[in-house]
Amino acid sequence: IAGYSGTATAGKDGTAIAGRYGTATAGERGTATAGYNGTATAGERGNATAGRYGTATAGKDGTATAGRYGIAIAGDRGTAIAGYSGTATAGKDGTAIAGKDGTIQILYSLNNHKRVKMGYIGEEGLMPNVAYMLDSKFNFIIKEEAK
Q: C-alpha dihedral over 135, 139, 143, 147, to 10 degrees?
């Protein structure tokens, strides 16, 4: 835990929390939370949360949440959530959610080549604050429809 403009780092299975402009980093399976304008990074299977203008990065199977103008990146099968005008990028078999005017990106593999499917909220039927994933033909579908 760190105060205003501070930095917090935790080891394996740890938790790190930073202040308003801080940076928080946690180890494998950890949780990192950073405040306003902060950056949060968590290890594999971890959770990362950043403030309003922050960036959140989570490892494989992780969840990353960023604020209103933030960027959220999650690993394979993870979930990335970004706010208004934010960008959410999820790994292969992942889920991406973005707010109004946001962008979603989901990674996939085609013929052993890595690709990115990109979508813009408000275009081609993509709605804000809805969880999207890719179907077998690499088209965006609502996560609930995949069941």
A: -30
